[in-house]
Design a protein that fits this description.
Elements lengths: L9 H82 L27 H21 L30
Length: about 170
């Protein structure tokens, strides 16, 4: 046994022992941190569930309170309408025979040119369209009808200008 360890260095043995101890320490740290991570993850998930439950409960309570308030407002509106109608009938007896019909007029038709985008893009699109319309009106002329004067001095002549003899066709 002595001869087996004769050529081994004691310092090398000590370093190997230190390496093994450090690896064991690192493994223990990793296991401890992994366990802490799992407990923290479980805690966060439970808090998330509690928050979601509270949010659903608050939403349900808000919906209930809004529905109750809506019903109260509808009843109050109807009561005030009835009271206003009663007062009108008491103040003006001639209104007893008058029937009020609901407004049956159709809603206004939407604008044919709906510009989309930011406010600046809408203004720009409207101005471009106005300029294109003005250019189209300026550069297009109506076609003169047969025999009508188009305002030129040729008066029906096609080829010969004024002052020159007309060429035979």
């Amino acid at each position: 046994m002595y001869f087996r360890n004769l050529f081994r260095n004691r310092h090398e043995d000590w370093l190997e022992q230190q390496t093994l101890e450090m690896n064991a320490c690192h493994v223990q740290d990793l296991l401890r941190k992994d366990k802490q991570h799992e407990t923290e993850l479980a805690r966060v998930e439970s808090l998330n569930q509690i928050i979601q439950f509270e949010a659903m409960r608050e939403l349900a309570e808000t919906k209930k309170s809004h529905a109750a308030e809506l019903n109260r407002v509808i009843e109050e509106n109807q009561r005030l309408r009835d009271e206003a109608k009663r007062l009108q009938l008491l103040v003006i007896p001639a209104l007893k025979n008058v029937e009020f019909e609901p407004d049956k007029t159709p809603p206004p038709s939407p604008d044919k040119n709906v510009y989309l985008g930011t406010p600046w893009q809408r203004v720009l699109a409207r101005e471009i369209e106005l300029q294109e319309r003005a250019a189209a009106e300026r550069f297009t002329r109506p076609v003169p009808t047969e025999g009508a004067s188009d305002g030129s001095s040729s008066e029906g002549r096609v080829e010969a200008p004024l002052g020159e003899p007309r060429k035979p066709s």
